[in-house]
């Protein structure tokens, strides 16, 4: 098994006033040749948007974009006719494909919005753009894996579809609870992002916002050292 550790305090950081963003991988003004991606996972931004502020209309192309709100609600609008809020407990996916435009805005006058934005490199270019979002019950991830995103040709339960052989899981673990990860393909690796709490994984301890990439493995066990909330991204390590 091979590992790569990314501690929270090693992430890139940008403060634009209306937006504060931590970049796990190179993005915009943060460029680090050693932090370009983890397999097909290209971007993992931890964004905080101030009240009455947001991202104006802008384009995307040939990228799988996943948004996961952690606090507050983000209003979404795109050129496909979708106009709705994304709230805590929901996950949004967009296959940008041949191209789309969208905006994301914090409509609250008083409260910040915190959300994760992930970009996954697609397995097929120039697909028809697609947008979906869904609420996932918290109880279905307690001390177990909840699949929230899956390949469009291998959907699991109510998971949202993307154009890549990648999966995103959520889990909320009580102290001393364990989950075992086994890759769905030998080419896949896991990027384990600890939102809060304390985890033991492959001889590493992950605290708030720490992350660990593991690949070339048969399985790996995650143990909660204290109540923890985590997101796991399983991606092909090569196309």
Automatic annotation (TrEMBL):
InterPro entries: Pirin, Pirin_N_dom, Quercetinase_C, RmlC-like_jellyroll, RmlC_Cupin_sf. Pfam families: Pirin, Pirin_C_2. Residues 13-120 form the Pirin N-terminal domain. Residues 158-235 form the Quercetin 2,3-dioxygenase C-terminal cupin domain. Belongs to the pirin family. This is Pirin family protein.
